[in-house]
């Protein structure tokens, strides 16, 4: 059972007077989908960069299965909002690219890439050019690519931020299916309250900068979807609406305190 754990992590960029993150503790265990929700500019992307190993914390510790995270590694798959796909390769080439760099033989890497494209509902798109895909399709390619190394944990930075409402909802549902099928630990950041409440098995609410954890909620709407309940049925459930409103008032409260 893999686990990515942050203990009292803080971050201050050298050029900045105000810290970005203040004593953040959280844990992403296998089979959990942890969502960090926070206002724009609070430090969500910085938090994800720390977990990915792109940036070192100023204080505290980040441990992957007990080992300190000091650099990026294939055991942490990352998907960013801007998908950063390679436009000169087709869909299959993009998904298989990381495996190619690691010296995996062509037949094996293509078989693995095809399998992952099926998982993200892109079977049949192998030879499509990247520029011919919609935003949602590109994000699915990014998700498949992040899964190629069979990472222990997936880190997603506002992966659906650039999508329209309908596409966004479809991608949320797809992510829940991939999460259930892979049983990996997933960490996702967003500033969309409904998305956070729908997806999270644990929702971590962050304050404005410097980001602190102001609330943690254990939720099960995503698991209900994965167990077969329809998205609309869940999102119109009075319990879902109650929690969404409760989180909204906490977010507004946290913003008012910071102002
Ligand atoms: N490399 C850096 N050096 C100095 N300051 C930085 C650096 N990267 C980010 N910041 C600052 O840290 C703060 C948090 O940025 P970050 O991108 O982590 O927030 P965010 O919550 O992801 O924002 P958004 O929701 O708008 O994407 C911002 O004020 C930003 O300007």
TrEMBL record:
Q: Which top-rank group of organisms is this from?
A: Bacteria
* Pfam families in alphabetical order: ABC_tran
Instruction: List each copy of the ABC transporter domain by range.
Output: 4-233
* SUPFAM superfamilies linked: P-loop containing nucleoside triphosphate hydrolases
Keywords on record: ATP-binding, Cell inner membrane, Cell membrane, Membrane, Nucleotide-binding, Translocase, Transport
Q: Which InterPro entries match?
A: AAA+_ATPase, ABC_transporter-like_ATP-bd, ABC_transporter-like_CS, ABC_transporter_ATP-bind, P-loop_NTPase
Q: Which family does it belong to?
A: Belongs to the ABC transporter superfamily.
Q: Which NCBIfam families match?
A: PRK11248.1
Q: State the protein's name.
A: Taurine transport system ATP-binding protein
């Amino acid at each position: 059972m893999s686990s990515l754990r942050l203990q009292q992590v803080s971050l201050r960029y050298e050029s900045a007077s105000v810290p970005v993150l203040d004593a953040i503790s959280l844990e992403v265990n296998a089979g959990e989908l942890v969502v960090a929700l926070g206002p724009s500019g609070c430090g969500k992307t910085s938090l994800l960069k720390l977990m990915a190993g792109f940036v070192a914390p100023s204080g505290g510790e980040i441990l992957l299965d007990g080992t300190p995270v000091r650099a990026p590694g294939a055991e942490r798959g990352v998907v960013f909002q801007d998908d950063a796909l390679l436009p000169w390769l087709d869909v299959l080439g993009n998904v298989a690219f990381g495996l190619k760099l690691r010296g995996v033989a062509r037949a094996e890497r293509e078989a693995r890439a095809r399998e992952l494209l099926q998982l993200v509902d892109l079977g049949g798109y192998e030879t499509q050019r990247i520029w011919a895909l919609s935003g949602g399709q590109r994000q699915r390619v990014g998700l498949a690519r992040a899964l190629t190394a069979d990472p222990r944990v997936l880190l997603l930075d506002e992966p659906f931020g650039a999508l329209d409402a309908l596409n966004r909802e479809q991608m949320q549902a797809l992510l829940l299916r991939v999460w259930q099928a892979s049983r990996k630990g997933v960490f996702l950041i967003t500033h969309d309250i409904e998305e956070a409440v729908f997806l999270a098995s644990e929702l971590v609410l962050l304050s404005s900068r410097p980001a602190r954890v102001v609330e943690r909620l254990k939720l099960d709407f995503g698991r209900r979807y994965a167990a077969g309940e329809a998205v609309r049925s869940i999102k119109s459930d009075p319990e879902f609406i109650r929690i969404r409103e409760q989180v909204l008032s906490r977010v507004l409260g946290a913003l008012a305190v910071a102002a």
